[in-house]
Design brief:
The complex is a heterodimer of chains A (572) and B (370). Chain A has 572 residues and is mostly helical. Chain A has 24 helices and four strands. The termini of chain A are close together. Chain B is of the alpha+beta class. Chain B has nine helices and 20 strands. In chain B, helix 2 packs across helix 3 and helix 2 packs parallel to helix 4. The longest helix of chain B is centred in the middle third of the chain and has 18 residues. Chain B is elongated. The chains are: A mainly alpha (572), B alpha+beta (370). At the A-B interface, helix 9 and helix 10 of A face strand 6 and helix 2 of B.
């Protein structure tokens, strides 16, 4: 959504330059990119939309949609999902705003560590998160065992099962989305705008409300819409804590059963509903952001203030509590992955590597599949994503607006909906084989889901490479491709790599589309976690989760080293 | 409102931005802080605004020390270099914001905003957003926003530097006119010496965190007491030399590498003392018949035709370039490079500057009050 404003300037800069090798990249040269997006984004969406409106004879009908909107059960699920989404937006907004504001405006003890750890929860699979919560806060979890053994509680407290559990888990998982988007847009507010407010008597909360917050809305709106969509479309978390009364959960349950035709059809309608919602959100966000172009003439960030007195204590305290809460799942997963005979005690009494041995020797397919599919997905992301970024920054092609919109749409499109759409669209045999029976669909869906990260990262590093640098190289005699290899590539490889790593890191945690599409033999680690967990093998499930956490943490570390702290743009 | 700075010191990480600033700004005066970037002029302005707190010394409004008074309670109006108009508010909302915070009734707010928009000539644009205005218009909105609260002090931080040359001239005149009308104490920061000369009642020339000379525009231009000011304001021919003899009435003969010259010093000099002679190009004659106190010969090295003047760079025997202006070049033949010319100037336009004296004087002044 941010790319469009940057483009206005680029149009001007590039007009009249017909000599650039990449300006001649028109028409047929970029056709493969458009075919890829058409086949793997547009066709599935259209197919599922048609499905929702045609009956078994292929005749146009409103009956499924009508039956969805007249069924009190689905209406209640819809209302619940909407309320859940709104509630999560409210809670994440509060946490996200506080953490972003503190990180941007103050100096305090442990700030560097906090700012690094705050981003962590969002890159973790929600499935691992909810599992970890249950190990610590569940009925037989650490906290309840302590309460009953040492504090005389007769019955365990219910921390996670039910609506409040969904809200808790989603909030702690998703708040970094708001934090990151706010860090990005609030960090760009010129210091003089707030100083001007002070000069006319606006201070403290008043200033935040009238000046700081309104100027942060571009980032905030994007973050809030994404949070809503993620919470709305997540089925794994509610199912694990025993909540089925939600649209996403119903969509999953309806699609994976093959008995009732009507239920299956309802799953499709829910998928279409989710897609429509993300398209509507996308349009709202675009309209809104187009109005709010807050780029200022000059830009110097607001100076950070050192916190003294109570503030110096309370702010680190806020982060400590928030992060302890957000990191509970990782503790739980780690304990369960190594803990032997963990029952009726707060912590395991013995530790073992047995579960890792088991998952490596008995079910190596989870790990092998994950790395193979995600590796392939990253290769596809680079092959498709880098040219898209090129088209967006370096050409004047008319279709750029559409391209930009598509990439952003993918970001908002829930995995649940895309999974359902793929099942419907690629079920039809082409040359006697349907794509849903070929394993390649797994890396393909992962690549499409995570394409925006590679595009964004490449796009923003290309923006930094001013075209005059390339022109200067040509002026001393370098030819088109030599310019690319000697000048452009050395300046953007970090951006490409960061984006690719981000795509990889988020691919391994994908748990919606892959669970829907995987057939026996194709299972990834997240599918394994889900299967192990639902079949009662908690420790094996946790061992897989632990590996995901470690890989995620390492990737995040490398990304941080590569890109500094500019992660906000990934989810914008 | 009078403003006073008493021995104000400001340190940032690793360097001292202000090394003891002493100032008295009179009520209703337009006072300019002039200097190159990094000299501390904006820091001084931000201290007066309250965006920074001084690490030493006092800031006084009238006779009250306001070191710790927050910006919001200083009753100042400020115009930033980038205008800092709130992009999410219309022109009207930008100007009205401060009034609304004072809980002023709506009708009153509207009347005030309309009046101030009228004053800066922007009536009819109140429903536009800042992004829809030209640079000059944004500048006027910023000015209206700063003035609508009837501040005691108006602070202007390089307000014209983002405008085109023509618009800058126009707005410059408007600012001066408005300031005279309102008789508001104004502190103006700029690095543009021409702007400072045209606008100001008084100017403080700053360099490396110190005020190096303070005076009205005419004094600073005609009687700089140090080579920095002489060089920074306008153009000057500066030649180092030493005093040979005094001729009475603060007139001295000074020997330089291109000959001996007679000039006037503002401070007493002694024989053998080092000093610099400063001669403005417009006070220099080329091939004049008049008998002047000072004269030497040189060759035309370069000629630049500026329209209103014709400037020659003349190479002297010692290899030093000397600038001389022909004031009415209309129809004048431009002399060929290499032409030998006679350069002459009067005794009273030849200023003798003793830098050593200036620095010593400054240091004792600062030290004396700390």
């Amino acid at each position: 959504m941010r790319a469009s404003t940057a483009r206005a300037g680029i149009d001007k800069k590039f007009s009249g330059n017909r000599d650039h090798p990449f300006l001649r990249w028109n028409g047929w040269r970029v056709l493969p990119i458009y075919i890829f997006l058409a086949v793997f984004v547009i066709v599935p969406i259209i197919k599922i939309a048609i499905d929702a409106f045609t009956d078994t004879q292929g005749i146009f009908t409103f009956k499924y949609v009508k039956s969805f909107f007249t069924d009190p059960f689905y209406l209640r699920a819809l209302r619940n999902s909407m309320l859940l989404g709104l509630a999560v937006v409210v809670t994440t907004s509060i946490l996200g705003f506080c953490s972003a504001y503190f990180l941007l405006r103050y100096e305090f003890a442990g700030k560097k560590l906090f700012s690094y750890l705050t981003i962590f929860p969002i890159i973790m699979p929600p499935l691992v998160g909810v599992m970890g919560f249950i190990f610590i806060l569940g009925r037989a979890g650490t906290v309840n065992t302590i309460l009953m053994d040492y504090f005389g509680f007769l019955r365990p407290l219910n921390f996670v099962y039910g609506w409040h559990g969904v809200l808790l888990v989603e909030t702690l998982h998703l708040f970094p989305l708001i934090t990151m988007n706010l860090l990005d847009s609030m960090g760009k507010i010129d210091a003089s705008l707030e100083e001007a407010a002070e000069s006319v008597g606006s201070v403290g909360l008043r200033k935040i409300k009238d000046i700081t917050f309104p100027l942060s809305t571009p980032g905030y709106v994007t973050g809030a819409l994404l949070v809503f969509m993620w919470a709305f479309a997540d089925f794994a978390t509610p199912l694990v804590v025993g909540v089925q009364d939600l649209l996403a959960a119903q969509a999953y349950l309806n699609i994976v059963q093959f008995v009732d035709r009507r239920l299956f059809q309802m799953g499709i309608v829910i998928g279409v509903f989710m897609i429509s919602l993300s398209i509507i959100f996308l349009i709202i966000a675009r309209r809104y952001l187009a109005l709010k172009d807050y780029a200022t003439l000059s830009y110097s960030p607001v100076e950070k203030k050192a916190l003294k007195g109570w503030g110096g204590f309370l702010v680190p305290f806020f982060f400590t509590v928030l992060l302890i809460m957000a990191f509970i799942p990782y503790l739980g997963v780690t304990l369960a992955a190594f803990g032997k005979a963990w029952a009726m005690t707060p912590f395991p009494v013995q530790y073992t590597l047995g579960y890792f041995t088991r998952i490596i020797t008995e079910t190596p397919k989870y790990i092998i599949n994950t790395f193979m599919y995600c590796g392939l997905a990253v290769i596809i992301c680079i092959t498709v994503g880098v040219p898209i970024a090129w088209i967006l920054t370096r050409t004047k092609m008319k279709s750029r607006g559409l391209l930009d919109a598509l990439v952003t749409l993918i970001l908002a499109l829930p995995g649940t909906a895309l999974g359902i759409a793929y099942i419907r669209a690629f079920n039809m045999p082409i040359f006697g084989i349907s794509l849903t029976t070929l394993w390649i669909i797994m890396p393909l869906v992962l690549a499409v889901r995570r394409l925006p990260y590679t595009v964004r990262s490449t796009h923003s590093s290309l923006l930094v490479v001013h075209e005059s640098l390339e022109e200067a190289a040509r002026s001393v005699g370098a030819s088109g491709w030599r310019v690319f290899y000697n000048i452009t590539l050395p300046l953007i490889w970090k951006g490409i790599l960061t984006g690719a790593l981000f795509s990889f890191m988020t691919s391994i945690q994908e748990s919606a589309a892959t669970i829907l599409l995987a057939i026996p033999g194709w299972e990834t680690m997240t599918v394994g976690i889900f299967t192990f967990y639902t079949s009662g093998s908690m420790n094996e499930s946790a061992a897989l989760g632990f590996i995901l956490i470690v890989v995620g943490g390492l990737s995040l570390y490398v990304i941080n080293k590569l890109s500094g702290k500019k992660m906000g743009g990934f989810f914008g | 409102m009078r403003i006073a700075l008493r021995n104000v010191v400001k340190r940032f990480k690793g360097f001292t931005a202000l090394k003891g600033i002493n100032l008295e700004i009179k009520d209703g005066e337009l006072f300019t802080l002039l200097g190159p970037s990094g000299c501390g002029k904006t820091t001084t302005l931000r201290l007066i605004a309250g965006f920074y707190k001084a690490d030493g010394g006092d800031i006084l409004f009238d006779d009250k020390i306001i070191n710790h008074l927050p910006t919001a309670r200083r009753n100042i109006g400020i115009v930033f270099q980038n205008y800092a108009l709130w992009p999410h508010m219309t022109v009207y909302e930008n100007i009205a914001y401060g009034l609304k915070l004072q809980k002023m009734p709506g009708i009153e707010v509207k009347r005030k905003v309309d009046t101030s928009l009228d004053k800066v000539g922007l009536s009819g644009l109140q429903h536009r957003y800042p992004g829809q205005l030209s640079g000059g218009q944004q500048q006027r909105v910023a000015l209206a926003r700063a003035l609508v609260l009837n501040p005691d002090v108006l602070l202007l931080d390089e307000p014209l530097s983002n405008l085109d040359a023509k618009v800058r001239m126009k707005v410059r005149a408007e600012i001066r006119q408005l300031q005279q009308e309102l008789k508001i104490t104004t502190v103006y920061v700029t690095h543009d010496q021409e702007e400072a000369l045209t606008l100001s009642d008084r100017i403080a020339v700053m360099r490396e965190g110190r005020i190096i000379q303070l005076g009205d525009p005419k004094t600073l231009y005609e009687r700089p007491n140090n080579t920095f000011t002489a060089n920074f304001i306008g153009t000057n021919n500066l030649l180092e030399g030493h005093v040979i003899k005094g001729n009475g009435d603060r007139k001295y003969t000074v020997k330089t590498s291109i000959g001996s010259f007679m000039g006037i010093a503002d401070q007493p000099l002694s024989s053998g003392q080092k000093c610099t002679i400063a001669v403005r190009p417009e006070n220099v004659q080329i091939n004049s018949d008049r008998q002047e106190a000072n004269a030497f010969t040189g060759k035309i090295h370069f000629a630049s035709y500026l329209g209103n003047i014709l400037r020659y760079d003349i190479m002297t025997s010692a290899g030093i370039l000397f600038k001389a202006d022909i004031k009415y070049p209309w129809g004048c033949e431009v002399m060929a490079i290499g032409t030998e010319v006679k350069v002459s100037f009067a005794e009273f336009v030849c200023l003798l500057i003793n830098d050593h004296y200036t620095e010593e004087h400054n240091l004792t002044a600062v030290g004396g009050e700390s």
